[in-house]
Amino acid sequence: MSEVKYDTISEMFISVTNKYADKPAYKYKEDGKWKELTFAQVRDNVETISGGLKSIGLKTGDHVGIISHNSYLWAMSDYGISCAKGVTTTIYPTLTTKQVKWIVQHAECKYLFCGDLEQTEKVLTFVDELKGLQNVIVLSGEKVGHPKVILYSELMAKGAEYRNNNPGFFEKDAMSIKKSDLLTLIYTSGTTGEPKGVMLTHGNLTSDIIGSLKVIQADDKDVFLSFLPLSHVFERMAGHFLATSVGATICYAESINTVADNMGEIHPTLMTAVPRFYEKVYAKIIDNISSASSVKQKLFWWSINAGKKAENLREHGHSVGVFLGAKLKIANKLVFSKLQKKVGGRLRFFASGGAPLSKEIGQFFKAAGISILEGYGLTETSPVITINPFEKNKLGTVGPPLSNVEVKIAEDGEILTKGPHVMKGYFKDEIATREVLDEDGWFHTGDIGMFDDDGYLAITDRKKNIIVTSGGKNVAPQPMENVLVMSKWIEQILVIGDKRKFVSAFIVPSFPNLEAWAKEKALKWETREELIKFPEVKELYDRVIDESMEGFAQFEKIKCYILLSQEFTIESDELTPSMKIRRSIVEKHYAELINNMYDEVNDN
What we know:
Elements: H1 9-19, E1 24-30, E2 33-38, H2 39-55, E3 63-67, H3 72-83, E4 87-91, H4 97-106, E5 109-114, H5 117-124, E6 135-138, E7 149-151, H6 152-165, H7 169-175, E8 182-187, E9 197-201, H8 202-213, E10 223-226, H9 233-245, E11 249-252, H10 259-266, E12 270-273, H11 275-290, H12 294-315, H13 322-342, E13 349-352, H14 359-367, E14 372-377, E15 384-387, E16 406-409, E17 414-418, E18 425-426, H15 430-436, E19 443-451, E20 457-462, E21 467-468, E22 474-475, H16 477-484, E23 490-496, E24 503-509, H17 511-520, H18 528-531, H19 535-548, E25 558-563, H20 583-589, H21 591-603
Parallel strand pairs: 1-11, 3-4, 3-5, 4-8, 5-6, 6-7, 10-11, 10-12, 12-13, 13-14, 24-25
Antiparallel strand pairs: 1-2, 8-9, 9-18, 14-15, 16-17, 17-19, 19-20, 21-22, 23-24
């Protein structure tokens, strides 16, 4: 594969759509059938979107928001904005009306693409208050009776007219963009305080694409299945920009709930996903096998153990050998091939990011011949800083740094990085920018980590998440949370205990599994609150925690916990849009429960 060398995203788009004109760029499901758009058709639509935006007044540097679920329309709108010299502001469609208003106002969006009527209705509640917001473009749905609202079809009609009157405008605009020009505003999840608008340039994203492609192999024969939010930098870079840059085909999953079916239909070769996806797949596999016959169970675990032994030998540079090789052939035919078929049958690897991946999960899938390449980065770093290479994938690490970035560990263990991937700064927030970007250009990630002898980075936890008990012991909650959330009985968990005598936790049960178990036990309840109070339920979770805490130091172990009847949600402000738990908000909401729990233990 020839090396990708683009200075800007707009230059990349023009080059790729010229080179692969007749090849499928996007596939999407409509009326039960998969349809496709070639690169030439995508280019034509993007030129028309750019023309439409310019016809309604878009000027160089104007901020344009997109609030929509994933679709080919999202992708084309993004390129349309960028190539017209605008700045795309991404907004999670799961955000509340209040949160959407804050971002649109703070980002000073002049135009806003809304995916459907649901998103449009959010915007209509405040559209008249924001005088700077000139037009709202509805990508899918009927027209709403408001002077600022226009349909996508109307924008395209205006764009077609603009193109006729201004031949050559598109390439002239797109090729005049510099790599230092702002490409996008992406608002961080904000686990503490209001979200910050991360300013990423064209050069930030192209450098990250170039660096990533030197580690992972991707080309025009690849088929991506996209389901992570395009509003998140991970999917935007890897499943959108990078995929397009090599001429790959991107297929859009119908929804998060149809990913399994869609994998079986389009047979992806590459996919990006977050650890929670792998955890859920793993839990489902284990749940299915636990209800199988004892013969099938023994065969399954015999195969997994053989796979783990083989991978361990390979990792240390040893050959598998004849006897183990024969075992693997049997395991592959009877077990692994079936698991591989569930992810489409021709997947070369998954890329994992956004949160730490449990080593146990990685080992399980790797044993079955399904590679998960874990990487590390942040919105502020475009996002990739490190990634595991396919040839030497070291589980439990996030891989070595990309060749075009620098990484070092500060005296207190914090990971620092420097290079063309680091953001321009936070929009309208110089103080916050100076807090994370020092005078020498080093970005302070807020993560604690270390390098191993091979130069692979391992992440311990977020610096601000480290728990210091009243006895002075430092506890990293993330490893415990990673182990516990693998359990079929746990949906969400938050380990707490800062300035306390011992470590405790909030646990949100996986209620479908818990309720099925409780029915088998002939327990009677009407509400979740009643269910979690049964002594039998407490005994179950006591066992889960005791078994999961093996291997942890005594001071790290969870001494007590609270079962919650409701999940942490975005609406309650307890989850970020990228589904991370806001530790401080949860502790604030449940302060009385926490104090009572510790008081009861202290009294005893």
